[in-house]
Design a protein that fits this description.
Length: 554
């Protein structure tokens, strides 16, 4: 009997091993990621500047960032992307650079610059408002630089089809918008890296002894596909060759794209001295536009917050949410902002007892939505929003869309609050499943059936937002953020990163289909871009393709 039992146990172990191998072969990118973390190196590429260190760098960089525009070519003064690139680039003029940064950063003047600046994204939107464009979309893939985009396109297209330029394979790369699409790239460096802030008093003083903004093209490269002559320059390291220049965070960058200014990292729509500034959404709202904000990460994370809120710190989440929902906040205690018409995102179920970053008015409980706020905004309790939150046993997409239809029919606003334990929507991995493996943190998120069924996807959230925004025929401005691209890249996880890009691309498809069905590119402008880069390097991009032999070759 003992012999039989040993054989039985050996058979069980063998079957488990076979199943594991079969799973890895069917999800080869997951296997590549798992092995790269275990070995701490990978033949296909790495995060950082040293090829044999897969997990070397886990945060942002000063890389040039791709910009894809739609409805812009030939669309009029200040809208066409070429008004900000090539001969019209800010970076060809010492005077323009000085106006932008408050000084002339070292080696930033480039007489041959082809790139624009992130503040030009705000200028295009402003010009679109002036021209009377009815629908303006800003789609931000948080942390998606040109290399990250290329990795996702290789996987989706099943081919290594380009090594420079716009690229192909993803919807936003291939879609032409009736011949009105354009491509460029931009600088994202902030005014300054750090500032001394007081969240309770809402004051800020930029620290001019910290790294200052600028872009030294001779070291960083004058196009995003050109390898930098000094890779460590892109991560803000000071060397004998020159000064350290700051890379941006999401708050400063989003402020640049929505308010048109350079500021310090962590600032939400305040300038380098802490003074509040207006955003495109504020101006649009005053002109009668409806405002929509959709994100795959927490509702008041840096990018969604920067569409509308004011704060010296991106970490003051509850106050930022209050601004978005038109409730009193530390920045607007007596005269709250009007609030956005649609706010949909994650952060549901994330609780904290203490949070020093949120100041003295922090309310224990949900980190992003203060206790009692839902009751204040709920239309059934006298508020202005139809509220849809994750509910046990309920189909998240269906529930959200039903709430959107109700809001549209009754002329109400919409607030959707979803997410999983990690504060964002579940990662869609590259193969379309939701089965992440480990990354830099050496842990892998796992999702229950409920996590998947009770949440909507970013594309479904985008569709629900459009249901409300289009209801009364008014013009609207809308942000859609694929924020989990950034979270995946911070974790050095190629499987999650590619999946998150594809998830965002599906949301872009929802927008382009809506425009084709309900509007036109004569009255619509869409900008698809990112707020900053990371440091993924592809050494052998062909290894992101499925192995022809059925085994994973790396």
């Amino acid at each position: 009997m003992a012999v039989i039992m040993r054989y039985f146990l050996a058979l069980v172990v063998l079957l488990a091993a076979v199943q594991r191998i079969q799973a890895e072969e069917s999800d080869y990118l997951r296997a590549i990621q798992s092995e790269a973390v275990e070995a701490k190196k990978a033949d296909f590429g790495h995060w950082g500047w040293t090829p044999d260190q897969y997990l070397q760098w886990g945060t942002h960089s000063n890389r040039l960032i791709p910009v894809y525009t739609f409805g812009t070519q030939g669309a009029g003064k200040g809208i066409d992307l070429t008004e900000f690139t090539g001969p019209n680039s800010t970076y060809r003029s010492a005077e323009s650079i000085t106006e932008l940064y408050g000084r002339l950063p070292q080696s930033t003047l480039n007489p041959n610059a082809e790139y624009c600046d992130q503040t030009d994204i705000a200028r295009i939107q402003s010009a679109a408002l002036t021209a009377g464009k009815k629908h303006i979309f800003l789609v931000v893939f948080d942390g998606m630089d040109w290399i990250t985009t290329r990795a996702a396109s290789i996987y989706k297209e099943g081919a290594v089809s380009y090594d420079a330029g716009r690229g192909t394979g993803l919807h936003f790369q291939d879609y032409t918008a009736n011949g009105t699409t354009q491509f460029g790239f931009m600088v994202t460096s902030p005014y300054v890296d750090e500032a001394q802030v007081n969240v309770d008093q809402q004051t800020a003083v930029s620290d001019l002894n910290s790294a200052l903004g600028g872009y030294w093209f001779e070291r960083g490269g004058d196009a995003p596909w050109i390898a930098p002559s000094d890779p460590t320059y892109l991560i803000g390291k000071k060397t004998e060759a020159g000064p350290r220049q700051a890379y941006t965070d999401s708050a400063s960058s989003a402020t640049s794209m929505t308010a048109g200014i350079k500021t310090f990292n962590a600032a939400i729509n305040v300038d380098h001295s802490g003074e509040r500034v207006r955003t495109i959404a504020h101006t649009a709202q005053e002109l009668g536009y409806r405002i929509g904000v959709v994100t795959s990460v927490p509702i008041s994370h840096a990018t969604p917050a920067a569409t509308y809120a004011h704060n010296v710190s991106r970490n003051d989440y509850q106050d930022l949410t209050n601004d978005l929902l038109g409730l009193p906040s530390v920045s607007h205690p007596k005269n709250p902002l009007e609030g956005v018409d649609v706010l949909i995102g994650a952060g549901y179920g994330v609780s904290r007892d203490l949070d020093s970053g949120q100041g003295q008015n922090f309310v224990p409980g949900n980190a992003y939505l203060a206790e009692g706020s839902i009751e204040k905004i709920d239309v059934t309790k006298g508020g202005r929003y139809v509220v849809s939150t994750r509910q046990e046993g309920k189909d998240g997409a269906a529930q959200l869309q039903n709430a959107a239809k109700h809001a549209a029919a009754e002329g109400h606003r919409l607030f959707g609050f979803y997410g999983a334990e990690a504060a964002h929507l579940p990662y869609r991995t590259a193969d379309g499943q939701y089965n992440p493996t480990q990354g830099r943190k050496k842990t892998a998120e796992s999702y229950s059936t409920a996590d998947l069924e009770e949440n909507a996807t970013l594309a479904e959230m985008t569709q629900s937002a459009l249901t409300v925004l289009e209801a009364d025929g008014k013009p609207f401005w809308m942000l859609v953020e694929a924020g989990d691209v950034d979270w995946a890249n911070h974790d050095n996880n190629i499987d999650n990163s590619i999946g998150a890009v594809i998830s965002g691309d599906e949301a872009v498809q929802v927008i382009t289909q809506w425009v084709e069905d309900n509007s036109s590119w004569d009255e619509t402008v869409m900008i698809v871009t990112a707020d900053h880069g990371h440091f993924l390097v592809l050494e052998r991009p062909e290894l992101l393709l499925p192995p022809a032999s059925g085994t994973t070759s790396r």
